[in-house]
Write a structure and sequence with these properties.
This protein is of the alpha+beta class. The protein is built from ten helices and seven strands. Helices cover 49% and strands 15% of the residues. The radius of gyration is 22 Å and the shape is globular.
Length: 291
């Protein structure tokens, strides 16, 4: 029988892996075959990778499209991406057929990877503290869905777009409402939510619901369907997301300040923004999700 689930890489293999716009040396820890796009039923290989020189907390599952074989051509690509990165003025190293040039290129590519890893690991940890009452909400949210097999009723009211508007309106008598950075932060939160929901913010039991609700709301974005429960999960992910941006420290501080302020506002308006009860999924629906 032909094995349709053919894996390009295998456990313990050293690869180059995209993280943002750059390539880093990584080791494959595990392999698996998973759903890549629940909406269209697309499946494919995924790999648990550990980035050399990074903490284990940054280990992640990546699709095959983000991994490259460890060979001379891809090492040269890694070096080229590093050299063309904004703020770098050095020219892309030339390659030749000679062994000496090849060895130099390989060494430079490795040095480039190590330099980037060291630069990343030295960056201070970015903290976005979650208020205690919202931490309790996150735990309840997890238990309701993963243990009790309940679901957030969708579409939600207020949805994420409405919540952001409510937060903006809460600043109507303050200077912050007209502040350009404030407006950019609100726009950024919405953008992050729409990009991250399907990939990062759903529990396994919610994925069939996501497929169903997207089919019924093809003209809407996720931020117009989901609400405070899932928005709160995004705030938990923000430290990791911010850490992989190229924002300067002043921009990071301004963003963090706004995120902390919004969390305090969400804490004060907890009952209005977030559900206290979830709906039970039907036995037929549960069997679909578990299959």
């Amino acid at each position: 029988m032909t094995n349709k689930r053919q894996m390009t890489f295998e456990a313990n293999e050293t690869v180059l892996c995209f993280h943002g716009p750059l390539l880093y040396e990584a080791k494959i820890l595990k392999t698996d075959w998973r759903s890549l796009d629940p909406l269209h039923g697309e499946e494919g290989p995924v790999y648990l990778v550990h980035y050399r020189g990074w903490k284990q907390t940054w280990d992640e599952w990546v699709p095959e499209s983000r991994a490259l074989k460890w060979n001379e051509a891809n090492l040269a690509k890694q070096a080229s991406l590093k050299e063309s990165y904004p703020g770098k003025k050095k020219a892309v190293p030339k390659t030749s057929g000679s062994t000496e040039s090849s060895d130099r290129g390989k060494k430079r590519a490795k040095d480039t990877s190590v330099d980037k890893e060291e630069e990343f690991t030295k960056r201070p940890e970015i903290k976005v503290p979650i208020p205690d009452s919202l931490k309790v909400q996150l735990v309840d949210d997890w238990e309701n869905i993963t243990k009790n097999q309940q679901l957030v009723p969708l579409p939600r009211t207020p949805n994420v777009v409405q919540i952001l508007e409510m937060y903006r309106d809460s600043k109507k008598d303050k200077k912050a409402k007209n502040d350009e950075i404030f407006q950019e932060v609100l726009s950024g939160i919405k953008t992050y939510f729409d990009k991250c929901l399907g990939n990062m913010l759903l529990y396994r039991f919610e994925r069939q619901q996501y497929v169903d609700i997207r089919k019924k709301n093809t003209g809407k974005e996720d931020s117009e369907i989901y609400g405070g429960e899932h928005l709160l999960r995004l705030f938990v992910q923000f430290p990791m997301l911010i850490a992989h941006t190229q924002m300067d420290q002043d921009s990071i501080n301004a963003l963090r300040e706004n995120l902390v302020d919004m969390l305090k506002w969400m804490q004060k308006n907890h009952k209005e923004l977030i559900l206290s009860e979830y709906e039970n999924a039907s036995p037929a629906y549960q069997s679909i999700v578990k299959s």
